[in-house]
Design brief:
The chain is an all-alpha fold. Helices cover 82% and strands 0% of the residues.
Length: 414
């Protein structure tokens, strides 16, 4: 967004269009850019327009507040549905926990972005198909395909959320990068609300305990569960109406943890050489190895999303380049272990799912690493690093859909 603003600073019509497409992101990006362009009269006018009366917190329009309140109540209702209908909680949440969160967020962005009827109908159809499919899978099945579908369903719904977030006229790579940045800001805001809620809950329970009232069980069953269900949509609302609140926090976290993750990975790989365990013969160790890989990949993605839009710091790009190179080694080990296990013991749904994910991550990492190296050597622009993120997001969406919807049919629900 900053690059678009800078490019169109002398084009009032285009600048107005950028502002109307995404007002919170525009305001945050413009305020960050303002010190560099403050001498421009048009920039001064925009700054005064955007920040007039900004001393008072902006909590959105009345309709937006009502919408978010209703969405929070709906999420809480879905979380309490097993108790209301006497359903088995473990079975319900294993299959439906994603539907407590994602449908309300998708609806929020569909409403905010003014998606047309055709797009809304398509998103609604995908959500309905997902609900029906995951709940008609054999009830007594404990096979791998059921577990794989439940594990990959959040990723598929997350991709639908990304589509609702970024699908508007003129949306491109920058919108997908904006979606990744939104996820980082959402994680920070959710953590803040959860910490605040945890402190408040502890104080409330202990204060009532002092007068002899044990409210721990009813408080957890109603206040905590309903609060947890509402946290994502409330956090989203806060990040949208107060873009400056956490927009500067997630880049700092990414910059701080990137070198930490790099050192940790190098030390971990070194320690693995002297360990008695290896991912080739130890299934649990391979699972942990892949979980580590996904976590580091997520950190790289969020860091690159920031680098691809704002940074010109060569040190940060160097750290990301080294981190991607080391992660390629981790991915190579995990991929070799999966191929070894398939060669020795044959194909199973779990092994095929992990193989596909590892191949996708490997291709993505190679592409990102090439772009980072180009930015480091100044052979290409740093914005291309961010564009490399947007290219693969639809591919991850397709793969998650294959695992969710096709694996149970291909492997006969085994």
């Amino acid at each position: 967004m900053r690059d678009d603003i800078l490019l169109n600073l002398d084009n009032p019509r285009q600048l107005e269009q950028l502002y109307r497409n995404n007002k919170p992101t525009f305001k945050s990006a413009f305020n960050a850019l303002y010190p560099q362009v403050s001498s421009n009269p048009l920039a001064e006018g925009w700054y005064q327009r955007l920040n007039y009366g900004s001393g008072n917190p902006d909590w959105g329009t009345r309709s937006e507040r009502v919408f978010v309140a209703g969405a929070a109540v709906l999420s809480a209702f879905l979380a309490k549905l097993p108790e209301m209908l006497s359903l088995e909680p473990d079975l319900y949440f294993q299959r439906n926990v994603s539907f407590v969160v994602f449908p309300v967020l998708i609806t929020y962005f569909a409403w905010k972005n003014g998606l047309n009827t055709r797009t809304v109908t398509w998103l609604s159809g995908m959500l309905l198909a997902s609900v029906v499919f995951i709940n008609v899978l054999p009830q007594n099945s404990t096979g791998d395909t059921l577990l794989l579908s439940c594990l990959h369903l959040p990723f598929f719904l997350w991709s639908l959320l990304g589509f609702a977030f970024s699908h508007e006229r003129g949306a491109g790579d920058d919108k997908w990068l904006g979606f990744l940045r939104y996820n980082g800001e959402l994680a920070v805001m959710m953590a803040l609300l959860l910490i605040s809620g945890g402190i408040t809950s502890a104080l409330t329970i202990n204060l009532f305990g002092l007068i002899g009232w044990n409210i721990e069980k009813p408080y957890f069953n109603y206040v905590v569960i309903c609060g947890l269900a509402a946290v994502p949509v409330v956090s989203t609302f806060i990040t949208r109406v107060q873009p400056g609140l956490v927009s500067k926090v997630s880049p700092v976290i990414a910059r701080l943890f990137s070198p930490v993750a790099l050192v940790m990975l190098v030390l971990y790989l070194g320690a693995t050489l002297f360990s008695e365990k290896d991912p080739f013969h130890d299934r649990e160790f391979l699972i942990i190895f892949n979980a580590l890989l996904v976590g580091v990949m997520a950190l790289i993605f969020f860091s690159v999303a920031e680098a691809g839009s704002t940074t010109r710091n060569r040190t940060q790009i160097l750290i990301l380049s080294l981190l991607s190179a080391v992660t390629l080694v981790v991915n190579g080990i995990a991929l070799s272990a999966v191929l070894f296990r398939i060669t020795e013991w044959g194909i199973t749904p779990n092994r095929l799912a992990v193989l596909g994910a590892n191949l996708l991550m490997l291709a993505h990492l190679v592409y990102v690493a090439v772009r980072l190296f180009g930015a480091l050597t100044r052979r290409s622009d740093v914005s291309l690093v961010g564009a490399s993120m947007a290219l693969f997001l639809p591919v991850y969406s397709i793969w998650s859909a294959v695992v969710v919807f096709l694996f149970p049919l291909i492997f006969a629900f085994k």
